[in-house]
Design a protein that fits this description.
Blueprint: H1 4-23, H2 33-59, H3 69-74, H4 82-91, H5 104-107, H6 111-114, H7 125-146
Length: 147
């Protein structure tokens, strides 16, 4: 069973992991850092996904209910596709973010991209930190502070 609060807790857990990795990146050997940045990219996508699902469930009045996987499929939330979830969120009242508010690689996060291990963008420290700070954290804080 799923609930909006479960998605919010999952996002909080993933955020703590990303924050820890970024705060301790200097202690990681240079040759291992690209893999850590790729993991930050991978996990940070779940932050956005979980917060989008949390927001959608809160707005669509599933706030205090548990939801089955079948119900999640029926309302379009049984997916990892950030663009699809953004569309549902934008169709919901009160959503202040749009596609232009997200970094390019944030929007690319999907089933195929998150398992791609050789793409240089997802190992690029500057790109991943920009994605995390400018898209993920901004979005996370806005939704968390509002709900």
């Amino acid at each position: 069973m799923w609930s909006s609060k479960k998605y919010k807790r999952a996002a909080e857990m993933h955020k703590k992991s990303c924050d820890y990795m970024l705060a301790n990146i200097e202690s990681v050997k240079m040759c291992d850092r690209p893999q850590i940045y790729r993991e930050i990219y991978y996990i940070s996508g779940y932050i956005v996904e979980c917060m989008l699902k949390f927001f959608i469930l809160e707005v669509k009045h599933y706030k205090n209910t548990t939801i089955t996987p079948e119900e999640l499929k029926n309302i379009g939330l049984w997916t990892h596709d950030i663009k699809h979830l953004l569309k549902i969120a934008m169709d919901s009242s009160g959503f202040r973010f749009s596609v232009k508010d997200f970094h390019k690689i944030t929007l690319e996060w999907n089933v195929d991209k998150r398992y791609e291990t050789d793409h240089p963008d997802y190992k690029d420290s500057i790109l991943v930190e920009k994605h995390y700070k400018d898209s993920v954290l901004k979005f996370y804080d806005t939704i968390k502070n509002k709900y």
